[in-house]
Amino acid sequence: MNEKALIRQWNQLRSHIIQAQIAPTLVLIAVFVSASFDLFLDATDATKYLVIGVIAASGILATVNQFAAVREADAILKDLKKISDPSALAKRISRSGQMLSASAALIVVLDLAIFGLVIWAVLG
Fold it and tell me: What pTM did the predictor assign?
């Protein structure tokens, strides 16, 4: 791949990471609104566990998609470093490895923290 194709692919993978967050965020909004109106207080245990299961499933699928994009983006960084006479943009992107690693770590930490908060909000 040439430099332009690699940068285009890099941008697409960044978009995939962001898009993978949309569906779980919408589900979390629904849980947040429900919890703020105390709708889980009278819900059956089955309903509460269903909500937690749906949150877990959507979060896990989003995380898998995000990690796939991160893994592929890491390969792009390696390919960009191999280009002779790269543009300033290609140089900058190729030095994004630490940010990419930090993003991967934050995905896990934030997912676990939010899931814990969801359990707390649903089960009370």
Answer: 0.81
d(CA 88, CA 3): 11
Kindly indicate whether the domain formed by 3-29+42-123 is annotated with CATH number 2.30.30. no
Burial 32-70 (b: 16+ CB within 10 A, else e): eeebeeeebeebeeeeeeebbeebeebbeebbebbeebb
Please provide the average confidence, as pLDDT, over all residues in the chain: 93
Structural domain spans, the chain: 3-29+42-123
- Among 71, 75, 60, residue whose Cα is nearest residue 114: 60
Q: How confident is the model at residue 101 (pLDDT cuts 50, 70, 90)?
A: very high
For residue range 42-55, what is the model confidence (pLDDT) as tens digits?
A: 999 999 999 999 99
